[in-house]
Amino acid sequence: MTWEIADEDFDDRWRALESPYRRRIASLGHSGKAPEDPAEAALVLAFARRRLHPLELWGPVVAGVVAYMAITQLFLGGAEALPVALVIIGLTTFSLFRRGKLESAVLKNEEVVASAPPPQVESADQPEGEEPNPVE
After folding, report:
1. What is the pLDDT of residues 67-78, one digit of tens each?
2. What is the DSSP annotation of 15-61?
3. Contacts from 68-73 at CB under 8 Å and sequence distance 24+?
4. Is pTM, for the whole model, over 0.90?
């Protein structure tokens, strides 16, 4: 058993969390940070991976193409295209910066989850505080 959370299990776990804790996990993911707790790091890792879906890259690509077209129009004599180009370039930069923070969160949290010992699973037939008998 590992700390990693499968994609199909993430939605159920996410819905089960309380709202303030979900905000904390999202904040850690968007800021590129890793918590000490491996269970929490696994949640942040799953959250960041979920947000890094390959289709999210199309937003900056399309914005970049539109900005290129607006700047080209500006050089051809259309001064009204400059504000549009600047806004689109700003949004594209913000989007790529956000993506970089999510990638940073994935890398840091993968390290925390990989270096953590596996979670302990308590058996129902063994009383608490007793060590299991070794098999000889």
Report:
1. 788 778 777 776
2. HHS-HHHHHHHHHHHHHT---SSHHHHHHHHHHHHHHT-GGGGHHHH
3. none
4. no
